[in-house]
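We keep the chain:
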Amino acid sequence: MSENPQAPGPQIDPVWSLRTATAEDLDAIMAIETAEFSSDAWSSQAMAADLASPHTHYLVASFAGGPREIIGYAGLFAPAGGLDADIQTIAVSARARRLGIGRGLMTALIEIARAQRIREVFLEVREDKPAPRTLYRDLGFEEIAERPGYYQPDNVTAIVMRLSIPQPETGIGRNA
């Protein structure tokens, strides 16, 4: 962290990077998970299973140039050969918000899906979370359904969103 004499307290370096998550990241991921989703956080066992699954792709974010403290994470469930995928979870620590990290994580997961030739990506988001809903709409997701009472124990409706991923044209099979 760098100090700025005109601003109170330490300043956060806004330069961050992404990498593939490993099992060694579980504790740091769970610290953010339980802080951000206190009433409906995933269990450590469920998160560990997802990190270990050959069908998921998890990324973590950290600030560059300092300790490798994890400040965000996101996961994509995309079985090989499948045509659709699901964003499993995404979170950014409170102290690292508004720096584009959530957008960066989502964009990277969408690119992973595109590389696997996935056609559609789905996610659920709490109806009482307007900031993530806006981000997802900005990234091209559309709201397609609601699941009343999906988030428990808060009894909050989930908004189901879908992103259609256009596939690159190869020129094969087209008249030139």
Remarks:
- Helices lie at 26-36, 44-52, 101-115, 130-138.
